[in-house]
């Protein structure tokens, strides 16, 4: 760090030593070439950020994760070439300067675990190049004509937005969106309207949104490939609108839905489904008829569903090794290569015996 010549041609620098003091770090930064493209640092403070902004006007990537920032300098808006800004884990930061919206070339903004952030900047709509946006906010409702104007968005995640209740209209404008997630939004009562118009959306994750009732809306995407649904105590049955992705869905995970009693009758119509995970749904008592139509299924996981176990045991006691539609006709799953079922040791032995030597999935 004391050799100036060593860093003359450096364009990308990571500062990961937590023991390096502020003064030593600033001294080091002043040794670097002004044409730096990447600064990757942890545990950085406001004075170090100001030094980076004032010296390195051509920065493309600024990674300030897990620092102790309480404010972000308004001069951040002068980094006209910045493409990537990561503020993940800055738990004390309460407000972002509106000048951040001047970053017209910014493509990634990560606010994950910025738990004290009160609100998004008022001119957020100006960030027209943003493609990857992870949002944290204490707002009950986002500003109108905000994220709906970000037509370049590919990845949008709402993570730990504890007061967020609903959304403005206009999400249908995000026609390039491929990934959408709502995670730990405990006050959320409704999803955005117009989701069926998100024709590029492939990934949807709805996790730990305790007040959300999916049955109140039938407006869902029609080209999903991956769907995670979990931690939704309001979920008793599945909305019919999710059937729109029957031809495209490849991965379905349903977990920790304590009041889910039945799976949709259209589940066997998921012709492209490769992985099905049903985890810790204690009231789920049976699977829909026609499960043998899931001929593309490769992995099946059923864990923490005691009512399904009792149903399985009744059927095995009644018909031995022949499975009925009310349990699982596993032999019809010709592509199955992995099976995880928590039905006990005896059930595992019967499953192993049930499969022929030609087609025996890995049983875990």
Automatic annotation (TrEMBL):
<dbReference type="InterPro" id="IPR032675">
    <property type="entry name" value="LRR_dom_sf"/>
</dbReference>
<feature type="domain" description="Disease resistance R13L4/SHOC-2-like LRR">
    <location>
        <begin position="41"/>
        <end position="254"/>
    </location>
</feature>
<dbReference type="Pfam" id="PF23598">
    <property type="entry name" value="LRR_14"/>
</dbReference>
<dbReference type="GO" id="GO:0006952">
    <property type="term" value="P:defense response"/>
</dbReference>
<protein>
    <submittedName>
        <fullName>Disease resistance protein tao1</fullName>
    </submittedName>
</protein>
<keyword id="KW-0677">Repeat</keyword>
<keyword id="KW-0611">Plant defense</keyword>
<dbReference type="InterPro" id="IPR055414">
    <property type="entry name" value="LRR_R13L4/SHOC2-like"/>
</dbReference>
């Amino acid at each position: 760090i004391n050799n100036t010549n060593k860093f003359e041609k450096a364009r990308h620098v990571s500062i990961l030593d937590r023991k390096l003091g502020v003064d030593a770090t600033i001294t080091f930064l002043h040794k670097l070439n002004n044409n730096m493209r990447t600064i990757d640092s942890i545990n950085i403070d406001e004075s170090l950020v100001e030094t980076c902004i004032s010296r390195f006007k051509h920065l493309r990537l600024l990674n300030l994760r897990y620092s102790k920032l309480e404010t972000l300098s308004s001069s951040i808006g002068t980094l006209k070439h910045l493409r990537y800004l990561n503020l993940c884990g800055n738990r004390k930061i309460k407000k972002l300067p509106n000048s951040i919206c001047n970053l017209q070339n910014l493509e990634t903004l990560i606010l994950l675990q910025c738990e004290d952030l009160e609100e998004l900047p008022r001119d957020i709509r100006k960030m027209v190049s943003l493609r990857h946006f992870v949002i944290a906010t204490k707002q009950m409702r986002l500003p109108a004509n905000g994220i709906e104007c970000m037509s370049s968005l590919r990845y949008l995640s709402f993570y730990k937005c504890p007061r967020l209740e609903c959304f403005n209209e206009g999400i249908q404008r995000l026609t390039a969106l491929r990934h959408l997630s709502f995670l730990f939004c405990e006050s959320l009562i409704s999803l955005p309207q117009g989701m069926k118009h998100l024709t590029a959306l492939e990934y949807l994750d709805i996790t730990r949104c305790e007040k959300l009732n999916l049955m109140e809306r039938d407006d869902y995407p029609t080209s999903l490939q991956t769907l995670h649904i979990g931690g939704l105590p309001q979920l008793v049955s599945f909305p019919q609108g999710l059937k729109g992705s029957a031809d495209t869905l490849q991965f379905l995970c349903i977990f920790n839905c304590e009041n889910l009693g039945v799976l949709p009758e259209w589940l066997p119509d998921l012709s492209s489904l490769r992985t099905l995970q049903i985890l810790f749904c204690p009231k789920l008592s049976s699977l829909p008829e026609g499960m043998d139509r899931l001929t593309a299924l490769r992995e099946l996981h059923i864990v923490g569903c005691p009512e399904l176990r009792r149903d399985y045991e009744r059927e095995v006691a009644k018909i031995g090794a022949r499975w009925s539609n009310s349990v699982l006709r596993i032999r019809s799953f010709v592509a199955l290569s992995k099976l995880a079922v928590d039905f006990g040791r005896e059930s595992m032995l019967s499953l192993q015996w049930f499969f022929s030597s030609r087609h025996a999935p890995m049983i875990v």
